[in-house]
Design goal:
By secondary structure, the chain is α+β, with helices and mostly antiparallel strands. It has 4 helices and 4 strands. A 4-stranded mixed sheet has the order 2-1-3-4. Helix 1 packs antiparallel against helix 4 and helix 2 packs across helix 3. The radius of gyration is 45 Å and the shape is rod-shaped. The N and C termini lie far apart (100 Å).
Length: 201
């Protein structure tokens, strides 16, 4: 084999090797690009998912703050409404003693108190200034003893205390107002905070 043939053969072998290397490089480059695209898509999907999670968390926080604000405002409004209602009730009650209806009101309180303490003979305690009205209220009701009530216990705005043995029912106006306020406040809290089994705004 001559020198030229040897050189030509080397040239052909080198060209074939170059072509093989270029082919492998192209395949490798395509594989790298595919892997890069897949990694980029995964990363983009993770970023999108993370963004959605953050957006949902932010939405929940904003919604929770808004609900809390609404409940606080609603509670304030209802408490103010309750207070105004009871202030008006107290003003009306303050005028009851001078009303001709006072003995009839006392009679209802006494009958109700008697049922609460279990019926039978009872003692009706009243303030000295109410003795006359209580006597009229107890007219023709059997088993009642009237006695003086010396304690203030929150005010002398009228009403009676009904006793039967160890049982006691405080039917004074300030006590009834306090019980009504407590009950109404409890119901309001139930409405506001879902204690009645419902999630109100």
């Amino acid at each position: 084999m001559g020198v030229e043939e040897i050189v030509e053969r080397i040239r052909r072998d080198a060209a074939a090797e170059e072509e093989r290397i270029l082919r492998e490089a192209a395949i490798g480059e395509e594989r790298v690009l595919e892997d890069g695209r897949a990694a980029s898509e995964r990363e983009a999907a993770e970023i999108v998912a993370g963004g959605r999670r953050e957006a949902e968390a932010l939405r929940r926080r904003v919604l929770a703050r808004a609900r809390h604000s609404v409940r606080t405002h609603l509670r304030t409004c209802r408490e103010a409404g309750i207070s105004r209602a009871f202030e008006e009730a107290e003003r009306c009650i303050a005028d009851l003693r001078s009303s001709t209806r006072y003995p009839a009101i006392l009679r209802r309180l006494i009958v109700e108190g008697r049922e609460i303490v279990g019926g039978g003979p009872i003692t009706v305690l009243c303030y000295e200034e109410d003795t006359k009205a209580v006597t009229v209220a107890c007219n023709r009701i059997e088993g009642i003893e009237i006695a003086s009530l010396d304690e203030d216990g929150g005010g002398r705005d009228g009403g009676v205390v009904v006793l039967a043995g160890r049982s006691r029912c405080d039917q004074r106006f300030f006590s009834r107002i306090a019980r009504a306020r407590e009950e109404l406040t409890g119901k309001t809290a139930g409405i506001l905070f879902g204690e009645d089994g419902h999630d109100h705004p």
